[in-house]
UniProtKB/TrEMBL annotation:
This is Pvc16 N-terminal domain-containing protein. Residues 5-177 form the Pvc16 N-terminal domain. InterPro entries: Pvc16_N (IPR025351).
């Protein structure tokens, strides 16, 4: 599932309507640690957090009608997939900073156009999502500090923003089936005194 989400985001960033800076850059999904040194201008999307979106949780069973039979199943869970986006340049000094800022800015503005991912971008299992796929750009959780994150990666802090995409997953395969009712028969009963 997550590889399909990577492919979906890659398709968005390489779309013919995307800014030229994005289409000309490499797209990577690697951990941006001290060993990450791309050979070309690169936009890196590091998937660093997965958590259930409890606000979108639905406890009601899902009922689906097929012919004359209803199938009942537990609802899908909704997972927030949080990427950290960073830009990487092979230039030096001021040219490096300028290229990274330009690439990062183009990505932020382009991805902000899609509060819900368009179906034309969806790849693999994401093409069968039971709900629209929402995305938020540059939203950080209150109180979240990034200093420990950069320390853990062993690199100096970099300009970055987050992309959160919420996908559905079906961990339950138990279903129940019920036949539909085609009619009701009413019988009267005579009472004898």
């Amino acid at each position: 599932m997550f590889q399909d989400l990577d492919a979906t985001i890659g398709a968005m960033l390489q779309d013919p309507a995307a800014p030229q800076q994005l289409r000309g850059a490499q797209i990577a999904f690697d951990t941006p640690d001290r060993n990450f040194q791309p050979a070309h201008a690169t936009l890196n999307l590091f998937l660093h957090e997965l958590s259930e979106n409890r606000e979108l949780r639905d406890d009601a069973r899902v009922m689906e009608l097929s012919g004359t039979t209803y199938t009942s199943r537990l609802p899908s869970i909704r997972i927030d997939c949080v990427y950290l986006l960073t830009a990487w340049s092979t230039q030096s000094a001021a040219l490096k900073t300028a290229e990274e800022h330009q690439l990062l800015g183009a990505a932020l503005v382009w991805l902000a156009r899609f509060p819900t991912l368009e179906t034309r971008f969806l790849r693999g299992v994401l093409q069968n999502q039971p709900y629209p796929v929402p995305a938020t750009v540059a939203q950080t959780r209150e109180g979240q500090q990034m200093g420990h994150f950069w320390s853990a990666l062993g690199i100096a802090p970099r300009p970055a923003f987050s992309l959160t995409v919420t996908v559905a997953a079906d961990p339950f395969d138990q279903t129940e089936q019920f036949r539909t009712h085609t009619g009701v028969i009413v019988k009267t009963v005579l009472e004898h005194p």
